[in-house]
Amino acid sequence: RHDQPLQSSVREKMQQKANGTFLWVSLVMKELKDVQSWEVVQVLDEVPIELTDVYQRMMEHIKQLKRRNPELCRQILSTVVATHRPLHLQELCILADLPNQGPNVEEATATMVQMCGSFLTLRQDYVYIVHQSAKDFLSDEAAVSVFPSGAGEVHQDLFSRSVQVMSKNLQRDIYQLRALGYPVEQVQQPKPDPLAALRYSCIYWIDHLYEWISSSSTYDGAILISKGVVEGFIRTRYLYWLEAISLCTSMSKGIVSMAKLEALTKVIPY
Question: What are the residue boundaries of the GPI inositol-deacylase winged helix domain, all occurrences included (predicted)?
Fold first, then answer.
């Protein structure tokens, strides 16, 4: 427990530098959790006033991590920024191509998320960006570090990994309901849930294909389609995919996605 003079000094410095910004206070408090009492005042003196500068400081800390950890953080941050909703830890492990720790996948992935500093927060096994300003920073000021080959390549990876994981794991009657026409609103998710790691991929894989091709200055996407990746998936897993998005209660999104895929195939030359 810190002594009273230190608490007073910390309170005064934070009031001076926060400018009434709660997010700044929250970010600094997270950083102070990991320092010793005699380091607190020095850390407060070092922390910038502007949020953008605080974010840049966090990026520098990530770059100074040891071994593969800076690259793992980059994979996590680029994936979280590029996806359309918060990801479950199991989804993030696959989509960010993180080391798979088998039965400990959620615990290991959570540890990797914590290495990303205060950019991310974890709630009920879902990973959230701490604030829109953090997402804007990662997309703009830090884009060279987070997306070294461009955002299009990240969308390509998200599309490819989604198709791979769905092709490998989707199957008929994946919840073993053993009943045709079972009302989806009455379905209870089994434990473990075989769709836990696939849910995002099932719903958004076509969106990432579209965003990849839209951001590309070449027709790489057309080449991929012509090689039969999408066609092969539709031929072999289409009914299983429909079943999966129904179990995800996202059939309407699936219909919109198929319309988007059809439109995409019409405008891309083979």
Answer: 69-145
pTM summary value? 0.85
Nearest to 89 by CA among 67, 106, 76: 106
Rounded distance, CA 162 to CA 245, Å? Answer: 14
Comparing 24-33, 81-90, 131-140, 152-161, which segment has the lowest mean pLDDT? Answer: 24-33
Same domain, 224 and 165: yes
CA distance 209 to 162: 10
Q: Is the pLDDT of residue 192 over 80?
A: yes
- The total domain count for the chain is 3
Q: Residue 140 and residue 146: Cα distance in Å, rounded?
A: 9
